[in-house]
Amino acid sequence: MKPERVPVPVDTAAPGGTTNAYVLGSERAVLVDPAAETAALDAALDGRRVDTVLVTHVHPDHVGGVAAYTDRGATVLSKAGYEGRFERVTGVAPDDTFRDGTTIETDAGSLTVASTPGHAPDHVALGFDDGVLVGDLAIASGSVVVAAGEGDMRGYLTALRRLYARDPERLYPGHGPAIDEPRAVLERLIAHRLDREATVLQAVTEGAETVAEITDVAYEKDVSGMRGLAEATVEAHLEKLAVEGRVAWDGARASVREASSRGGGEAGL
Predict the structure, then answer these.
(1) Residue 260: pLDDT over 70
(2) At what angle do helices 182-205 and 211-218 cross, to 10 degrees?
(3) Concatenated DSSP letters of 203-246
(4) How are beta strands 18-24 and 4-9 bridged, if at all?
(5) What is the pTM of this model?
């Protein structure tokens, strides 16, 4: 089964200014991440019967077309436990739910749901044959936003490692082209997060306490154009380090715990 990718323009700061909608199947098609109702997506759906609409997560740049395509008679699904969140963002009450391990059928084959929280708490990936629709779990170049509030850095790294262990032949991300070398990309994304974690921990070790101070030390490049995002990322790393007992973090100030000086932490691949 090969999904058809339809880049959909979005108003948010999505990579490349588009979000990928995917269509799988024909007579019992599944539509994933309809970011908006567009002529290109309508053309891709022409002649198909959309049986099911779902999203990898309910960030605004993935859900703008849910109401429009559900109104055409499709069944809409959301992740179990997040039905209220789904309805608040999309304006649509889900007809049913899915969870980790749920199988969703199309006339071209089946999709298996994998819970992959990290970028967002309700994030899922959808596996089929030798490929995986990964939403915002991975991207061909650059990195994925994991910001405090919505994001969970421990969960994100766990999701990346779970996907790495699956060893799929191709990844279909929510933004940008298909990923033909998944292991290399996943290794890069994991290494990037662990490298940033190391710079955050080093900043705290050197005496930086607030998110602003730590951001100044942890980023070598100029982040003035994305300062808020950089600080939210630093905070997500601090939350992870605090859960692991490697720093003390009260939401305002960070300090090094004695245990962190004895090593430990997460190993790379």
Answers:
(1) no
(2) 120
(3) HHHTT--SHHHHHHHH--S--GGGHHHHHHHHHHHHHHHHHTTS
(4) antiparallel
(5) 0.92
Which of 77, 79, 35, 56 has its CA nearest to residue 173? 56
Among 226, 147, 126, which Cα is nearest to 193's? 147
Structural domains of the chain ordered from first start = 4-180 (3.60.15.10), 194-262 (1.10.10)
Other Cβ atoms less than 10 A from the Cβ of 218: the count is 23
User: How far is the C-alpha of 116 from the C-alpha of 155, rounded, in Å?
Assistant: 7
The whole-angstrom separation of Cα 258 and Cα 55 is 43
| pLDDT for 11 | 86
Classify residue 183 as left (phi > 0), alpha (psi -120 to 50) or beta: alpha
**Residue at token pair 């007579």:** 27
- Can you give the pLDDT at residue 233? 97
Task: Give 187-216 pLDDT, tens digit per residue.
Answer: 999 999 999 999 999 999 999 999 999 999
Q: Give me the DSSP letters along 146-175.
A: --TTT--HHHHHHHHHHHHHH--SEEEESS
Q: How far apart are CA 18 and CA 30, in angstroms?
A: 20
d(CA 36, CA 19): 9
Digit-coded pLDDT (tens) for 72-110: 889 999 999 999 999 999 999 999 999 999 999 999 999
**Structural contact between residues 144 and 156, judged by C-beta atoms closer than 8 angstroms:** yes
Cα separation, 208 vs 57, whole angstroms: 34
